[in-house]
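Figure 6 in text form: structure in, sequence out.
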């Protein structure tokens, strides 16, 4: 399904196959899986993710000495968009609808197709309230489930956070609506968020009746030389293509890690008398 946008009475409407609410680890990981499976995916993120406020990220597979969390966030977003997901900023304040006629998200602030991640309130060019419709929704935002009030989904409030109950494999009691990551009260660990986002995404892919075996790129002949068809979601590549992909991967990693990240993390809002809670050396 191709996306389209038009503007009427100050409201932008777009039609997508999947809306992912939240551009943190769970949301962007899910977007990579769904986009690669051919589902037209749009991610709407509310300002700066909590990940970017970390000083150094540990316990992530593949980074023996840890990784700069802002670099890691950049890479996650690049991976999702490189594979076809669209990225927007803004706050989803309400979600209505159902799978038969589509879901409608009301979004305030932010930008449709903004290139950089900012707080919606910081942008002088923030768009007015707009609506976005989608066939399915995967919610993976900060744990504030207010926008799900119109649905019969159990929630739990703890301090200032409100979690939404996710059933088996990220499904909720509402068909076509999935929940993952911190919103689903998963452990506050990057690797857990990534895995939970991937699990919910694969569940959604299966529920969409899209054949999907494994996100597996195998050497040429791995299946076909045994007289088997390449499973859905997989591919075989010859040595030339394998070298090209390896070289592209090495070049990308060298570019990402050629210099320290140019953004420093903010601190907790209550610790700095600054509207954006910036540290002194950031001002």
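Output sequence:
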């Amino acid at each position: 399904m191709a996306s389209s946008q038009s503007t009427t009475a100050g409201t932008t409407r777009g039609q997508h196959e999947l809306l992912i609410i939240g551009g943190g680890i769970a949301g962007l990981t899910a977007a990579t899986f769904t986009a690669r499976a051919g589902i037209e995916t749009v991610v709407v993120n509310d300002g700066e993710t909590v990940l970017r406020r970390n000083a150094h990220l540990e316990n992530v597979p593949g980074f023996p000495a840890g990784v700069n969390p802002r670099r890691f966030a950049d890479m996650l977003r690049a991976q999702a968009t490189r594979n076809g997901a669209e990225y927007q900023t803004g706050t989803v304040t309400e979600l209505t609808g159902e799978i038969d006629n589509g879901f409608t998200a009301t979004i305030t602030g932010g930008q449709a197709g903004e290139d950089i991640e900012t707080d919606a309130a910081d942008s002088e060019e923030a768009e007015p309230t707009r609506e976005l419709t989608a066939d399915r929704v995967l919610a993976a935002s900060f744990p504030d489930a207010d926008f799900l009030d119109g649905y019969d989904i159990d929630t739990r409030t703890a301090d200032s956070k409100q979690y939404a109950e996710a059933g088996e494999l990220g499904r909720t009691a509402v068909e076509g609506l999935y929940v993952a990551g911190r919103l689903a009260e998963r452990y506050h660990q990057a690797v857990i968020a990534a895995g939970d986002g991937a699990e919910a995404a694969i569940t959604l892919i299966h529920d969409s009746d899209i054949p999907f075996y494994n996100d597996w790129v195998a050497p040429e002949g791995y299946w076909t030389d045994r007289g088997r068809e390449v499973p859905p979601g997989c591919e075989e590549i010859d040595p030339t293509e394998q070298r090209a992909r390896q070289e592209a991967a090495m070049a990308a990693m060298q570019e990402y890690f050629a210099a320290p990240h140019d953004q420093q993390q903010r601190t907790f809002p209550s610790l700095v008398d600054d509207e954006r809670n910036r540290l002194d050396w950031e001002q």
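Caption detail: Helices lie at 25-36, 69-82, 190-207, 239-256.
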